[in-house]
Design brief:
This protein is α/β, with parallel strands linked by helices. It has a five-stranded parallel beta sheet, sandwiched between helices. Helices cover 46% and strands 19% of the residues.
Length: 124
């Protein structure tokens, strides 16, 4: 059985790199990275991830808008998308869920909670 693939969308190079390495090493996941919302939409189609970790604040469009586009595409609409952001829960959590996200994690994300959330949506 092949490893589950996770797309990590974050414009912060350090955060994205750490998450990519962490998931590959500790979780045995296959990972993809994206810096922008547009790149995330493209990789959601080409990379066929099992889960997307989506930052909210991105350099081109918001993670909320990227999520709406991914959810509205029949090829990618079934992919669970988890928000993880430093933005406050108030207001943003509701927008994230309205866009189709399934969970909202606030940065800095506790590693145990992150892994539990991933397992919840893509059990190994």
């Amino acid at each position: 059985m092949s490893a589950k693939r996770i797309l990590i969308v974050d414009d912060n190079d350090d955060v994205r790199y750490i998450l990519l390495q962490l998931l590959e090493r500790s979780g045995g996941y296959d990972t993809l990275g994206a810096v922008t919302g547009q790149e995330a939409m493209g990789k959601a189609i080409s990379g066929r991830p099992d889960l997307i970790l989506m930052d909210i604040r991105l350099p081109d469009i918001s993670g909320v808008d990227a999520t709406k586009a991914i959810k509205n595409n029949p090829r990618t609409g079934q992919i669970p998308i988890v928000a993880y952001s430093a933005l406050p829960l108030v207001g943003w959590k509701q927008r994230a869920f309205q866009a189709g996200m399934v969970e909202y994690l606030q940065k800095p994300v506790n590693l145990k909670l992150l892994m539990e959330t991933i397992q919840k949506f893509v059990p190994s």
